[in-house]
Design brief:
Elements lengths: L14 E4 L4 E4 L5 E2 L8 E4 L9 E4 L5 E8 L6 E15 L6 E7 L6 E5 L11 E11 L10 E8 L7 E12 L2
Antiparallel strand pairs: 1-2, 2-12, 3-6, 4-5, 5-12, 6-11, 7-10, 7-12, 8-9, 8-11
Length: 177
């Protein structure tokens, strides 16, 4: 179903926090997705049932931008961030392009990023984590309380190449112990 706004805005209730383990998972309903409200480009499966079958499925886009955030991170702590994904057997357009996982603390913070090559990932049924090496974000002691939010995103907006078949199961942010 196509709505008047082509972009999907995050439902802030689509986050699951495990305070004891310091883990936050953000499910696809909690993502901001460019062109995510247009069913020619994206499909959000089982939007009311959290869990492994719940995913944002990319049909086709030339502009990949998926973002989310979590607040109340602790000063002086380091967090690892990333996405759990699978690739459909009919995935296309990923060869020879770089996808970036990027994160920052606060809206005005400086991005930390890691380049990922999804063209090397074959079809799979078990979600894999990207990036494979942890992307770590440090919350500095100088970070004001109102800026203690980690913003996380998955981007490929430079190639103008059409791509599809990516399935995003969740994003994660967890404290390094």
């Amino acid at each position: 179903m196509t709505t008047t706004c082509p972009h999907r805005e995050a439902d802030e209730t689509a986050k699951e926090k495990n305070v004891i383990k310091g883990i936050t998972k953000v499910y696809p309903r909690g993502f901001n997705i460019t062109w995510g409200n247009d069913d020619r480009y994206w499909n959000i499966t089982n939007p009311n049932v959290p869990g492994s079958l719940y995913m944002a499925e990319l049909k086709q886009v030339s502009w990949l931008e998926v973002t989310c955030s979590t607040d109340n991170v602790e000063v002086g702590e380091t967090y690892r961030v990333g996405f759990n994904i699978t690739m459909r057997p009919d995935a296309f357009g990923w060869d020879g392009i770089d996808v970036y996982v990027m994160a920052k603390v606060g809206k005005k913070g400086k991005f930390t990023s890691m380049k990922v090559s999804l063209g090397e990932i074959g079809p799979n049924e078990t979600p894999i984590t990207i990036p494979k090496e942890p992307l770590e974000i440090f919350v500095a002691h100088s970070t004001p309380k109102e800026c203690r939010t980690i913003h996380l995103g998955l981007y490929e907006v430079w190639s103008s190449k059409w791509k599809g078949g990516l399935q995003i199961h969740d994003a994660f942010i967890y404290k390094v112990v």
